[in-house]
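Weekly modeling sync, notes
Attendees: AB, CL, MP (scribe)

Item 1: holo prediction request
CL wants a bound-state model with nicotinamide-adenine-dinucleotide before deciding which constructs to order. AB pointed out that an apo prediction alone won't tell us much about the pocket. Agreed to run with the ligand included and paste results into these notes for async review.

Input as submitted:
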Amino acid sequence: MAMASAAGRIGRSRAGAAAAALSRGFKVERLDMFDVVNPATGKVIGELLIESKDEVVSKFEALAAGQKKWRSVPLVERRAMLERFNELLRLNMPVLAKTLSTEMGKPIAQAKNEVRATVDRVRFYLENYEKVLKESCVLETSILKEKVVYEPLGVVANISAWNYPYFVSTNVFAAALLTGNAVLYKPSEHATLTGMEITNLLYEAGVPKNVFAMTTGKGETGAAVASLKGLGGLFFTGSNKTGLEIAKQAAPNLVKLQLELGGKDPVYVRADVADVGAAAASIADGAFYNCGQSCCSVERIYVDKRIYNEFLSAFIKNVMAFKVGDPLKPDTYIGPVARQPHLPYLAAQVQDAISKGARASSHTHLESNQGGFYFPPTVLSDVNHTMDVMKEESFGPLIGIQAVENDAEALALMNDTTYGLTASVYCKHNQDAENILRELDVGTGYWNCCDRVSPRLPWSGRRGSGLGVTLGMDGLRSFVKPKGIVFQSPSNKD
Ligand code: NAD
């Protein structure tokens, strides 16, 4: 496929929008456009349409009609389209990765990793979706039969985040389409060019336009989607704050709601860890990969006081060795943060910690900054839970490290936030790790690893980290609803 850059295919031009506005009597440019900004330079690289509530409703109505036919399309045909989509992802990976890197600052090597790993996620769904559609007979006697059949939800909406735009969208649309749903997709305003590329590839793979549709815009467009009447399901990925708003918007319609929200994911390094240096390297990667902008990034570290100094110096050494710079360079490990307004938020967390006694070690080797949104990767040591950095999601290249006395203190601190996404333990024996992980109120636990998502495992957050499940067999089941059917033999009716 000859795939032009998505930036060349952006909705209406600003000039066209302004002309349309003038024709309606406005004296200024229309406000229904938003800028796409390259975080590595701060420059505007495109303009996109903010779709109105009416446009959202009309897309939804077309999907509702399309879904009625789609649910009866033979499984083998739906499978062929998603297989083709996967092939297109693979073939177009370099172009797709470049768009992603340019619009949200993800280092190019990591952008390629994301596209590659998306192929694996879709493959998991392809291999397993038929299992969740299979009806089951739960009772069969001479007079009575009871069975359960599984039906698609209908039109599902996917309002999503920008940090892993391929993951957070395919988690929903691949499972949803395969199980007979139609999808209204609202990508983040910080990853809409990628959203457009995903949409184009799905169409090229044969998915009909009245089965998958994208709407562009910011929060208002998201709100228009979340408050649609008649949605079969609403799948949201984003911040805790927006998640709570979405829950209110969807509540009057009693829509099935899933929320994949933020985290404050802890790691505990026990004194018996096999190799302190290897643990420090692994955890530094878990904290700073994707510029710390992963929902399951390591956000706080607790280290047994007997190995604290050794761990801290190994950790800082790793962080100072990271290459910070232009995300399009193949060896860049840390790029800019995606959103300029996040810079003062991160600076405030650092200042708050320092004012309460923390020590900061910051990376200062940025190659050159052409006006990009760079934040120096920073390690805060001697931190405690009076500091924001240990309680509130940072979502950037920033980490706090605290010494602990023992397992009991580590456990208490790990549970001491409102979030519950993932947690890790680095230690010698897996049983010790499992004993601790089972005491934590989180959706995923790791031993001697962190910051990873498996397509085979259920992905879920607890408490402030969300509601519901994607991925794994449990995640596939999120896209179907069970119906119980009872057959009573006519002769035994009374
Ligand atoms: P965000 O909440 O700012 O935006 C997410 C989406 O919601 C965007 O599409 C946005 O346009 C839309 N939106 C914003 N305001 C809205 C409103 N009032 N009503 C309806 N829609 C609205 O989040 P973000 O900055 O895009 O993403 C970062 C957050 O997402 C982090 O907290 C991160 O941890 C979380 N996240 C979680 C997971 C997970 O699997 N749990 C995965 C990725 C990201």
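Recorded for review: DSSP finds 15 helices and 20 strands in the chain.
Action items: CL to compare against the apo run; MP to circulate these notes.
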